[in-house]
Amino acid sequence: MFIFKSQKEYALIDAGDGLKLERYGEYLIARPDPQALWPKGLLGLGDGNIWPNTDAIFAKAGNGGGSGRGGNNEGRSAGGNGGNATHRHLDDEEETGNWIKTRSIPDRWPVKFDMGDGLPSLNIYARLTPFKHTGIFPEQFTNWKWSMELIKKSMESTGEKGGAESDAKSGTKFTKENPPKILNLFGYSGAATVAALLAGAHVTHVDSSKGAVTWANENAELSGVLDKPVRWILEDAVSFIKKEIRRGNKYDGIILDPPAFGRGAKGEVWKIERDFLPFLELIFELLSDKALFLILNGYAAGYSSIAYSQNLQKLVGERGGEIEYGELCIEQSLSEFSKMAGGKDASDGAEKKSPIILPCGIVARWKSN
Ligand SMILES: C[S@@+](CC[C@H](N)C(=O)[O-])C[C@H]1O[C@@H](n2cnc3c(N)ncnc32)[C@H](O)[C@@H]1O
Fold first, then answer.
1. Which is the closest atom of ligand 1 to the Cα of 262?
2. Which architecture does CATH list for 112-118+136-329+360-367?
3. 263 Cβ closer than 6 Å to some ligand 1 atom
4. Cα dist. 197→162, 179, 185, 280 in Å?
């Protein structure tokens, strides 16, 4: 299990009854989460009613809060989706609806993630999209940090005579001038792209939605890395990697987060159960001889991280290295929970309670030795 703990600008405050309450910067957001399969009254606030002081609540279409799929075009554009229906990508594609706001919330606002250990911070814009998500998946923090550390380490001098420079000449090591090349497929709002750029990599970001690529661009700008070496590719992921193989291009790190269902920029259909395995075969062909890592992220179709990890065994067999896998989770902030409860729970010792752990997604990842 990879557990992300709340930070200054993001906190999971509570969850239960199929809902979760989070804080993004200064805004408290409540929205459905089918994984929150426990009663809110047990650990939550408000005995089953909606939490106090919530700034925006997502109301599913059909619950009186939304106008249905056909009525969401305006919201799609506002959510950065460019009117492209490919954002039917998370756990429940039918979950469209509207946000009921109790205070004015900007179209987008920045949320900063402190990466720790001397790594630069990641700054990402949150938005209230008509698909109930915010364009930020804090549970992926572990992937952002892991890739940043591997990229940075790959460019550090070995301390031996000649160091990284002589290794670079012999082609065995990366340097700032010759950084690892990272491919981020289905890159969406680009947090993983920004993380890799911050660590000094050269990044190719691929997504079929114009709105998503624009959002990722904005995030790169917000994090101060728009001037770093990055290629923004608006294309079907399958078509793009086939072309890259024909062109003989290779990558030193690949990150992919395939949806259950999606569409390429020209309407090509992506179905995970049909396309995942042949796609992965092509991905393996794109890995360079000195590749550092491969990250397979998932929210789609209820697959287990074990299922994803077995595919990576092939890499260990051929190249050595290590695989790790598990669920991506977020831990409740008990201090924010108790603050919201008006200190009530603090007096019974909120810290004595076990925080809720919300399962959010899965990952399997390989790194070379
Ligand atoms: C599951 S999300 C990725 C989330 C992202 N990795 C993140 O952490 O923010 C899926 C993304 O895949 C894109 N997409 C769907 N089908 C695609 C295709 N055939 N080719 C390229 N991108 C596609 C969607 O536009 C969407 O941005």
1. 16
2. 3-Layer(aba) Sandwich (3.40)
3. yes
4. 26, 10, 15, 24
